[in-house]
Write a structure and sequence with these properties.
The protein is an alpha+beta fold. The protein is built from 4 helices and 2 strands, in the order αββααα. Strands 1-2 form a two-stranded antiparallel sheet. Helix 1 (about 15-25) packs antiparallel against helix 2, helix 1 (about 15-25) crosses helix 4 (about 90-100) and helix 2 runs antiparallel to helix 3 (about 75-85). The longest helix is centred in the middle third of the chain and has 24 residues, at about 50-70. It is flat.
């Protein structure tokens, strides 16, 4: 359950453990593609089961915050709005790896 005391989904205890694991043994970094008609989008991101688990944690927190917004109205939008600006799972891994290599 999303805790109002968490400022970011990455502070969830499960996410913190997964991110520490990624810092110790980085996941694969892969080129991803999606095609729609004649257009192909390409990007690079971290992939693998730990990144998928991080993405699931992020989405669960977001779902709970969105549900609270729908139930409580405009007063509950601020936490959801902050969640929308937080890093994706791949961006969180990149941030952990960047800070890990700087020390």
């Amino acid at each position: 359950m999303a805790s109002p005391s968490l400022s970011c989904w990455t502070q969830d205890r499960r996410a913190a453990k997964l991110l520490a694991s990624c810092a110790a043994l980085p996941p694969a970094y892969a080129e991803c593609r999606t095609r729609y008609g004649n257009s192909t989008d390409r990007w690079n991101e971290y992939v693998g089961y730990r990144v998928e688990a991080l993405a699931a944690i992020r989405l669960k927190v977001g779902d709970e915050l969105l549900r609270a917004y729908h139930e409580q109205g405009a007063a509950a939008y601020e936490p959801f709005g902050r969640w929308c600006e937080q890093p994706t799972a791949s961006d969180a891994v990149a941030g952990v790896l960047a800070s890990y290599t700087q020390h």
